[in-house]
Amino acid sequence: MKKAGVLGATGSVGQRFILLLSDHPEFELSVLGASSRSAGKRYEDAVVWKQTDLLPESARNIIVQECKAEAFKDCDIIFSGLDADYAGEIEKEFVSSGLAVVSNAKNYRREADVPLIVPIVNPEHLEIVEQKVKSGQKGFQICISNCSTAGLVAPLKPLVEKFGPIDLLTTTTLQAISGAGFSPGVPGIDILDNIVPFISGEEEKMEWETRKILGGLSEDKMECRLVSEDAMKVSAQCNRVPVIDGHTECISLRFERRPPPSVEAVKQCLRDYVCEASKLGCPSAPKNTIHVLEQNDRPQPRLDRVRDNGFGVSVGRIREDPVLDFKMVVLSHNTIIGAAGSGVLIGEILLKKGLI
Amino acid sequence: MKKAGVLGATGSVGQRFILLLSDHPEFELSVLGASSRSAGKRYEDAVVWKQTDLLPESARNIIVQECKAEAFKDCDIIFSGLDADYAGEIEKEFVSSGLAVVSNAKNYRREADVPLIVPIVNPEHLEIVEQKVKSGQKGFQICISNCSTAGLVAPLKPLVEKFGPIDLLTTTTLQAISGAGFSPGVPGIDILDNIVPFISGEEEKMEWETRKILGGLSEDKMECRLVSEDAMKVSAQCNRVPVIDGHTECISLRFERRPPPSVEAVKQCLRDYVCEASKLGCPSAPKNTIHVLEQNDRPQPRLDRVRDNGFGVSVGRIREDPVLDFKMVVLSHNTIIGAAGSGVLIGEILLKKGLI
Amino acid sequence: MKKAGVLGATGSVGQRFILLLSDHPEFELSVLGASSRSAGKRYEDAVVWKQTDLLPESARNIIVQECKAEAFKDCDIIFSGLDADYAGEIEKEFVSSGLAVVSNAKNYRREADVPLIVPIVNPEHLEIVEQKVKSGQKGFQICISNCSTAGLVAPLKPLVEKFGPIDLLTTTTLQAISGAGFSPGVPGIDILDNIVPFISGEEEKMEWETRKILGGLSEDKMECRLVSEDAMKVSAQCNRVPVIDGHTECISLRFERRPPPSVEAVKQCLRDYVCEASKLGCPSAPKNTIHVLEQNDRPQPRLDRVRDNGFGVSVGRIREDPVLDFKMVVLSHNTIIGAAGSGVLIGEILLKKGLI
Amino acid sequence: MKKAGVLGATGSVGQRFILLLSDHPEFELSVLGASSRSAGKRYEDAVVWKQTDLLPESARNIIVQECKAEAFKDCDIIFSGLDADYAGEIEKEFVSSGLAVVSNAKNYRREADVPLIVPIVNPEHLEIVEQKVKSGQKGFQICISNCSTAGLVAPLKPLVEKFGPIDLLTTTTLQAISGAGFSPGVPGIDILDNIVPFISGEEEKMEWETRKILGGLSEDKMECRLVSEDAMKVSAQCNRVPVIDGHTECISLRFERRPPPSVEAVKQCLRDYVCEASKLGCPSAPKNTIHVLEQNDRPQPRLDRVRDNGFGVSVGRIREDPVLDFKMVVLSHNTIIGAAGSGVLIGEILLKKGLI
């Protein structure tokens, strides 16, 4: 069993990390870090637990620590659910203290030598970590992608692998409120009988992260290389909708190749996709990475978000698009494959690859 | 005062017609038609009234008639909220009996000599009616557009008038449930904490109707001419969302002209637009046809749907689009400018033009 | 026109005050007070306006003041939407500076010489103010009741007047989220697909305020006298539900008199009730104070909350109760008759009575 | 493995039966019955599956039968999710054909020799079945209680056992929409931003069923004996709320005994309660029959409805009541312990008792 530390343990992402790790076959909850307001308390007393599952017994009595690397030095891996306001400095200290940090925060996503990972999509970017470990470096940083990016890139990856570059890509998102956390998150008065057609910074993240995740590595495998803005134009329109969990995205895309593949070929490609994490036998990896749905009114967040415990992505309504080549609807679980779940699955891949 | 008949008076669109006409300065509720189940009853007894406004006194005691032209022969105008299952035959009988029918049903929208009207957009298509009236024809049919089409074309019209053709257009809709009517409409179990990414026939309607509404007339002004599919490619993705009233649409468009206008020119064009109904002084016409919003999180359906009593359209987040030229968010009130309200405003225009 | 000042002008209650006063026939918006963070700005720049009506022109350019009495000295009346954290000291300073303060805050509700007013229920308690004014006192404090209390006491008042004391009273509330304000108010994550069976302090307020509002005055009319806890036992269970506006209450009551009146007599009593504000001709007073609904599935918040612009209360399902005498469902608009609207109507009564 | 038949297999209760039985250690899905419209089709083709879990493999290919006893003659037990319109005749035919029927329909609940069972509450009423079986009767009928009754009686049973009769009982319910089924169930337009303060027949069911379930048996153990209306007065007020699953009930009760027990004694009694199904080791029985929650804002349906897979009941806010003795909030999962889950757990008890 590997020892896992969780940063930001009382927040919404931290709580999800704790749920996913509490019963995990390979990791054990070891150290929990939170703000100085919580430090010194039993976790049960420090947290306002807001999950549908009960607070796990294994976490209840752990004494919360401040987020200083010293307290986490025996951890094999650190999962960070810290807010961006705090993640920058704290994670830097952890990495420079030789710790392996998998973070949900946005702070280091744009660093060329930090892999930005959706574990069912681009685990090959962990090669950067492999290079670092080989060269004797102990601490390293890995970033989890933005929640809405994760759903978007899941079907794109097999399509690009099979049919070559996508040069135009649009997505309009209908995003669940759980992504905004608890305090305060999205006010009820803003989201009952309403839509908010704006999520700060989200469109920029989606447009940029997609090009990093679908990009390759430098020749020395020390850095990520983005798909250029010219090679792939990405446009996102992001909306917050009255849904608890599950981001729905209406996407449209054009392949560079003419003529494009058939609708049936696109569907088959998605059905056939088996992510590397599944091949490696990671315990959280989905049985079915992409569920291709044929009913015309699916996927729906309430019905489809928990496929493969939230690690699988559902794609429906794959059809030709009068403007680009294809349009389709993608659904992913924003707090599992879009956040903490991705973190844990990244940890499992690191373990399989001997990087922790 | 012109005498107005309402068909489908007990349904959701019919109820809205009755509300809008009950206090109207130019029309008076004269005859109400519904199914044989309701015929013979006082309106109050026939209807399950589901509006936030009380059932108007003026409608309460009207005895409901069957939908036969004979009973409506003294009406100057007929507003039809009939379901498509019934509208076909009934409206045909009404028109051939010499009545002026303004219908919310889809049945005759695709007829070349039937104007498909969004009254704040293309009242010039009523020229067809003018030709018919001039030639001595008494009955005629006018169709109200689909609810989601109405919101889409509102900003397009002034843009095309000023900047020339739009050749690519995409829209992803987040549509309110009131558009689906009452019995049963959208089941609660399908729409609480959920999105349904499909509305039967809706995408086809939007893609086709847009090309009719933005198209011109034949030389003899007897028929509509569609913008060709080659000249303007339109792609719609339609979603039902947990919102009572107000369709939100994330649209993206490209002008034929290179270079395209500036963002500021686009905004100014929309701000400057005054629809003909307003110029004519129609009582229901919006003061401000298009509200251009500058706050980055607007328009929102709950806050913005009632601008100009639901006859105005709100447009926000106008910005450059990495894939096409511009993206923006459009909000329109689906039961007002998207249905019964459009019908009434068409009636007002007909009256101003002396066509009824 | 009387000059009105508004305290807490940027908050949710303050915004409602501004809407109600902006077009008022007797009051004009004169001074707006808010925190020092907002002071010195134009109101439009200081506020995050979250109403479905547009920010009124008359308020847009008013320069926000700090909440010091000096700036409000020319006001004839002060409407306070201040949070309880600030209301205590600020309102005290205003009253001692000779100003008439009508407050939505809870701070002074329990003072014996402060009338706690639901204007459609107990305006006779303003006699205390009359005594003060007669005795030459200039400043005085009036409190608006808690939002859920307002709905509860509306039907109780005519019943007690006609049938004598109610000795047992229970209410289970289903309260809208708008009552919790904006920042943050009720988090969306807590209220979508959910109920929160607790509102801090609410049950105690309802149980106590009801006994004050239905109570009388001391002999010298200088103080309120509560109905004793022995004479009327009140039990409240308060829930927050996913509704924007409108508090629904399932109430049950027993009269002291045996046998109790008939169901029909109870209904007739409520139908016949005309509140004093209506008799005085106050512009905001409801035409129909209590709407007695006969359909078995009403009142419903979305359909019935705006009766008489939110100043009327709806009561339905009046029927015998196997445990007490009668049960019924009461609906009131929490931000109108339950908050700012009550404040304005109190102001109108004060004016009619010559107290401002 | 016992062979189970399901009637009404395509409906909402039927789908839940299939989910609960598909992986069951003691029952196997054997025959599925539905309307003649579905009969002859593979289950997968006959059903519009609307569960968050995927349609179980084991049910997918079963050919749906008409609801005639002949086709079910090899079944050891029949679970009926039929609508009341059909349940009457069909279940009668099944019982008279010698089959054991556990039904969710209301039709036979009021028959004195038909046990009305909440399996975590009154399995001792199955004694009637035992008598029938002993006497050689083969077919018998058992009814599952109404969904909202199930939650109500769960905490009452241990309280009455320990502290003696409850003579006054009130409950105001906030009921989830899943209880109303799919076609159409509760229309979305009725329940978004709304409350419906009426559910047809529900209050009468709760008031009557509670007295049957908490009652005893006749001396010969052949019939149920109700608690008389004089001995226990029950009053219910039922509301439909915008919640998917989970009925919340605000209840209030008075014990006959004076003085009543303390709040702490009431809590301890509920905490200590272990239902017979748990003692018998039934696989679906809850580990913890009643979860007594101490946080003041719990139970909440979204967070607490799945305790013990929906077979446990949560009780919170236990406190003194100014009008009766105690008030508290009860939450139960309406489609599990309130419907299909109860049916399955009744089946498990029958099996443990050797009655099937």
From TrEMBL, chains A, B, C, D:
First-tier enzyme category under EC: oxidoreductase
GO biological process, one term: methionine biosynthetic process
Pathway involvement of the protein, from the record: Amino-acid biosynthesis; L-threonine biosynthesis; L-threonine from L-aspartate: step 2/5; Amino-acid biosynthesis; L-methionine biosynthesis via de novo pathway; L-homoserine from L-aspartate: step 2/3
Substrates-to-products reaction catalysed: L-aspartate 4-semialdehyde + phosphate + NADP(+) = 4-phospho-L-aspartate + NADPH + H(+)
Keyword tags: Amino-acid biosynthesis, Methionine biosynthesis, NADP, Oxidoreductase, Threonine biosynthesis
CDD domains: ASADH_C_arch_fung_like (cd18130), ScASADH_like_N (cd02315)
EC number from the UniProt entry: 1.2.1.11
Pfam families with a match to the protein in the record: Semialdhyde_dh, Semialdhyde_dhC
Active-site residues (renumbered): C147, H247
Residues covered by the Semialdehyde dehydrogenase NAD-binding domain: 3-129
UniProt record similarity statement: Belongs to the aspartate-semialdehyde dehydrogenase family.
Full protein name: Aspartate-semialdehyde dehydrogenase
